[in-house]
Amino acid sequence: MSTLPAPPEPDHTVAPPPALRPLALFLAFSQMALSGFGGVMPFAYRFLVEKRQWLRPEQFAEMVALGQVLPGPTICNVSIMVGWRFAGVRGALASLSGMLTGPIMVVLLLGVGYQKFGASPHVHDALTGMSAVAAGLILSTALKMAVRLWRVAPVRWVKGSLCGFALLSFAGVGLMHWPLIEVVALLAPFAVGVAFFKPK
């Protein structure tokens, strides 16, 4: 009795675009920056990973992790890394410029408006509502990244380590209010050890 051959494993690799000009990167990050009012990271994930597929989910997670521990805003660090990846120094400068130019202009205009109308209770309520929306978007992106990392983890003890590091990070920063750099300094050596000694 013949058996059907097993279907081939799906190819999850995402080939980088053959060419990305600095102008394309500038426009892409300008769109992300202006779309992500109150928090750009969820829109960056949707644009870079889900829509354009310039990065795989794990690549995006690695860039966010590195950008988090480097000085400066995380999303700006990510924009520099993405620009460098696809167009070198010019791409990095274009991506960072796109990330900053539009928001700076918007913030200047809003600053003028807030100086005139900031005392209004309606403005205060609107800002409170936008803060809640931004928190929800960030939580949604974090859950997407966590699910993807869980799926690609090779064995159970690595998955358990991922959960442990996430909970310890949340406890240190969110509950005990330790500085982020101290939490990273404490957990990073153990995380690197788990990654280094995981089964091949």
Low-confidence stretches: none
Radius of gyration: 20 Å
Sheet-strand content, in percent, reads: under 5%
Q: What is the percent of helical residues?
A: over 70%
Which structural category do the helix and sheet elements fall into?
mainly alpha
Number of helices: 7
Oligomeric status: single chain
Whole-number average pLDDT? 79
Ends distance: 36 Å
Give the total of domains: 2
The major β-sheet equals:
none
SSE pattern: HHHHHHH
Give the tally of β-strands. 0
Shape assignment: globular
Please tell me about this protein's structure.
With 200 residues, the protein is an all-alpha fold. It has 2 domains: 18-115, no CATH class; 153-200. It is built from 7 helices and no strands. Helix 6 runs antiparallel to helix 7 (180-197). The longest helix is centred in the middle third of the chain and has 44 residues, at 74-117. The model has no long low-confidence stretch (mean pLDDT 79).
